[in-house]
């Protein structure tokens, strides 16, 4: 199954990977700017998000991303990835380092990371709300947890719509399909330059991951945004778009 996706522009390829709070629409603010800067821009929905249905057989998000690149005949791509998408991006870059030219990670997760107490408490409360049938309450919990103080009302409404849609799709699934067990990826295999961005208002897990990546990867640096929560590309889209473009121009100049 092919992931639902969009492609536009001409030049070096940039693939946008979304947070699990959102879907590919989270990149609406960045899409035209990246295209106009001389890049071929791709964005996709993971399985169970946006327009991609839930899986009907064992699957791996990283393998899905590689399959999409193969289908589009893209040999090498820069990844711009948020949160869970960042975890997937790190796995793709570790398993197939020759396919990834650069990594921009926004408040990324990381393969093998063990959740801290705040993240575990969030997951437990979300499960309780969903098991009680309070989907609206679970959506509100996600907005309260993941959006920082800079997010305006329109942004909150946009994230609410994407998260509610994901819950509706996933809760309607009649079968629990396991992920493929590909083994733990070795982040030491990553060769792409990496910019790891964190938000000061984010949960400690994601701040700690971003701060650790320069010690784990051969060419990585960490930038903390003092104003940001967990979704900075939506909280201050113009500022984060400029940040992404600056790093891409440094590592992968557009046409």
From TrEMBL:
Pfam families: Abhydrolase_6. Keywords: Hydrolase. InterPro entries: AB_hydrolase_1 (IPR000073), AB_hydrolase_fold (IPR029058), AB_hydrolase_sf (IPR050266), Epox_hydrolase-like (IPR000639). One of its GO terms (molecular function) is hydrolase activity. It comes from the Bacteria. Residues 14-242 form the AB hydrolase-1 domain. This is Alpha/beta hydrolase. It comes from Plantactinospora endophytica.
């Amino acid at each position: 199954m092919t992931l639902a996706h969009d492609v536009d522009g001409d030049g070096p390829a940039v693939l946008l990977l979304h947070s699990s709070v959102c879907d590919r629409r989270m990149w609406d603010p960045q899409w035209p700017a990246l295209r106009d800067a001389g890049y071929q821009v791709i964005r996709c929905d993971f399985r169970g998000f946006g327009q991609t249905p839930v899986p009907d057989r064992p699957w791996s998000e990283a393998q899905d991303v590689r399959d999409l690149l193969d289908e589009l005949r893209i040999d090498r791509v820069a990844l711009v990835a948020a949160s869970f998408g960042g975890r997937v991006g790190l796995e793709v870059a570790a398993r197939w380092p020759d396919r990834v030219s650069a990594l921009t990670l926004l408040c990324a997760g990381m393969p093998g990371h063990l959740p801290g107490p705040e993240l575990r408490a969030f997951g437990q409360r979300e499960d309780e709300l969903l098991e009680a049938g309070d989907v609206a309450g679970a959506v509100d919990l996600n907005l309260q947890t993941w959006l920082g103080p800079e997010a305006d009302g329109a942004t909150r409404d946009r994230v609410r719509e994407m998260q509610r849609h994901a819950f509706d799709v996933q809760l309607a699934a009649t079968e629990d399909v396991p992920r493929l067990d590909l083994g733990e990826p070795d982040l030491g295999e990553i060769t792409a330059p990496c910019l790891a961005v964190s938000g000061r208002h984010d949960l400690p897990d994601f701040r700690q991951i971003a701060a650790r990546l320069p010690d784990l990867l051969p060419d990585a640096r960490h930038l903390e945004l003092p104003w940001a929560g967990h979704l900075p590309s939506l909280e201050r889209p113009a500022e984060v778009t400029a940040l992404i473009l600056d790093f891409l121009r440094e590592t992968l100049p557009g046409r």
